[in-house]
Specification:
5-stranded parallel β-sheet, alpha/beta, Methyltransferase, Cobalt-precorrin-4 Transmethylase, Domain 2, Cobalt-precorrin-4 Transmethylase, domain 1
Length: about 220
């Protein structure tokens, strides 16, 4: 069986009882970074497990062996470095392969950074679009242009070393919509959690106050 296990995005208190039990009882854990997952197990006081790396550089090479282990009646738990597997990581490939092979797949739901950001944003989230990370080059401007016309709330991730460039591009793209709301979230559930809510017009004065540390969630309100 393959168990999809969500892990905390920061605060260890967000781990669920089902997640703890699954990580205790499984035969091995499939993870992005074995060092990150090993540290998590230690912090949670869980026993050491066999950790199997599965990330964007080895996903296709490892897929066959992982499916073979599942077919051998092993219980594997799939985790990401933080949050819910399959969101902006290669976990979905293993999930799809397991389902296609007729193997049992269960989900142990829990934290996801973009859902936490949407919840605290104060923006309407009955209808939203999640776009992951913005493209670095190809298709980036096309996507930004499509967000300008978007009538749903939009959420995406951005790294600390690209956030200033991205916010500058957003100011330009939305220059004709100065009252459109944008919310920036970083370090959610952690000690230095920060949520900044502003309009496009406010960005010029507010951005210099931003702490550039940790991955960001950027939420853009719907077009009025």
């Amino acid at each position: 069986m393959l168990s999809i296990v969500s892990t905390p995005i920061g605060n260890l208190g967000d781990i669920t009882l089902r997640a703890l039990e699954t990580l205790k009882s499984c035969d091995a854990i499939v993870c992005e970074d074995t060092r990150v997952t090993g540290k998590l197990l230690s912090l949670l006081g869980l026993p050491k497990k066999e950790l199997l790396s599965f990330h964007s550089f080895n996903e296709h090479q490892k897929l066959t062996s992982l499916i073979s282990r599942l077919k051998s009646q092993e219980h594997l738990a799939l985790v990401s470095d933080a949050g819910t597997p399959g969101i902006s990581d290669p976990g979905y490939l293993l999930i799809a392969a397991a389902q296609d092979a007729g193997l049992k797949v269960e989900v142990i739901p829990g934290p996801a950074a973009f859902l936490a950001a949407l919840s605290v944003s104060g923006l309407p989230i009955h209808d939203f679009v999640y776009v992951g990370f913005l493209p670095l080059k190809k298709g980036r401007q096309t996507l930004l242009g499509s967000l300008h016309k978007e009538e749903r709330t939009v959420v995406f991730y951005e790294s600390p070393h690209r956030i200033e460039k991205t916010l500058s591009e957003l100011r330009h793209v939305f220059s004709d919509q100065p009252d459109r709301t944008i919310v920036l979230c970083r370090e959610l559930t952690k000690m230095h959690e920060e949520v900044m809510r502003m309009t496009i017009a406010d960005m010029k004065d507010r951005i210099p106050l931003l702490t550039i540390k940790g991955e960001f969630c950027v939420i853009i309100g719907p077009r009025m």
